[in-house]
Amino acid sequence: MKIVIITGSSRGLGASAAIECARKGMGVIVTYNSSPDKAEGVVKEITQGGGKAVPLKLDVGDTGSFVAFRDAVAAQLQSVFGRRDFDYLVNNAGYGLFNTIATVTENQFDGLFNVHLKGPFFLTQTQLPLIADNGQIINITSATTRVATSGVAPYAAFKGGLEVLTRYMAKEFGERGIRANSIAPGAIRTELGGGLSDDFEAMLAGQTALGRVGEPEEIGGVVVSLLSNENRWINAQNIEVAGGYII
């Protein structure tokens, strides 16, 4: 059984990806920060469907907790999955902030940086000894790295940094057969940034060639596809999954 860790998988894109991975026969480590009940709900849905999953607490913005998290992962791998390593790491955890550059505070900037760039960098570094050779890392970035949308400059800048980091991961981990790719969602119906109001959703739909916003499972499906052996030659790529957003 292949095993995947998906950060921020108690809800939204992460939860959808966790459920889709389990449907394809993968064991899943579901991580959460502030919503243990939602993480348990995801685990319950997976196990009721015949899959195997466990929840673990993780604050991606707190690098000081990463060694303890790695030890917790190692313990769960042995006790639940009977393994000493895992195959896939999906750096998904994140949150949104809608402020113009003129109004962003340093604390807001640092918070976004810690979760969206610093966190994935050092979490991946900490987990490397447990990632099996020929595994894969997927970083969730954003279509805002391609188009400039007023109000999301720090978020987009750090997602852009994560996109660049993905290529360096592919370069440096390639000798172990570990691939690294990123997925850049467009407007998706999730709770990120407080969710979508009707007017905001209508505006985003009007900017998308397919005339609507995306659903979380449409990102989860791409995660599963990238992790599959059929796509083993895709490496160091950023794949935008946005329905034709601002083209």
TrEMBL record:
InterPro entries: NAD(P)-bd_dom_sf, SDR_fam. GO terms for molecular function: oxidoreductase activity. Keywords: Oxidoreductase. It holds the Pfam family adh_short_C2. It comes from the Bacteria. The keyword Oxidoreductase applies. Belongs to the short-chain dehydrogenases/reductases (SDR) family. This is SDR family oxidoreductase. It comes from Rhizobium sophorae. The lineage of its organism: Bacteria, Pseudomonadati, Pseudomonadota, Alphaproteobacteria, Hyphomicrobiales.
